[in-house]
Amino acid sequence: MPKDEIEFSPTDAVAWTPCEGKVPELTERILTGTGRPGVVTRLLRFAPGTDTTPNGTLTHDFWEEVYILEGSMTDLRLGETFTAGMFACRPPGMEHGPWATEEGCLTFEVRYEAPSTPDDRSSR
């Protein structure tokens, strides 16, 4: 099932909903998806003071591209803080998080299925 065709529309027409996991301060707006797990385009919001430690370190079986629109977040495992204007591209199986933010953070994410082989990673 492909994603829906959508002409420009206000994202605030899509409700914020709780994300999976144990952190109620982490919410998402699913802008479009396919109905398959992990294949979505979304806004992800970390409320000020969010700590995703209860969700642990994440890995998943899909690609994830993330652009930080507002605020900042710290990867507690790496001890690094990432800020607005920064971008990440995570292949399937890449560990990331947990995250914490004092000021809050808003990201734009595209998650998709794609073949991932060791050869794909070495060509970057």
Q: How would you describe what is shown here?
A:
The chain has 124 residues and is mostly beta strands. The protein has a single domain, classed as Jelly Rolls.
Topology:
Elements (H helix, E strand, L loop, with lengths): L16 E2 L7 E8 L6 E7 L16 E13 L4 E4 L3 E4 L8 E2 L4 E8 L5 H5 L2
Antiparallel strand pairs: 1-2, 2-3, 3-8, 4-5, 4-6, 4-7, 4-8
Pfam families: Cupin_7 (PF12973)
InterPro entries: ChrR-like_cupin_dom, RmlC-like_jellyroll, RmlC_Cupin_sf
Protein name: ChrR Cupin-like domain-containing protein
* Overall average residue pLDDT: 91
Oligomer: single chain
Query: Under the CATH scheme, which architecture would be assigned?
Result: Sandwich
The CATH topology is: Jelly Rolls
Measured between the Cα atoms of the first and last residue, the distance is 29 Å
Low-confidence runs of at least 5 consecutive residues: none
How does the overall form come out from the CA principal axes? Answer: globular
- Secondary structure category: mainly beta
Helix content: under 10%
Question: What's the CATH superfamily, by name?
Answer: Jelly Rolls
Measured on Cα atoms, how large is the radius of gyration?
A: 15 Å
CATH class: Mainly Beta
Number of helical segments with 4 or more residues: 1
What is the count of structural domains?
A: 1
Fill in the keyword field for this structure.
eight-stranded antiparallel beta sheet, 124 residues, mainly beta, 4% helix, 8 strands, 39% strand, Jelly Rolls, 1 helix
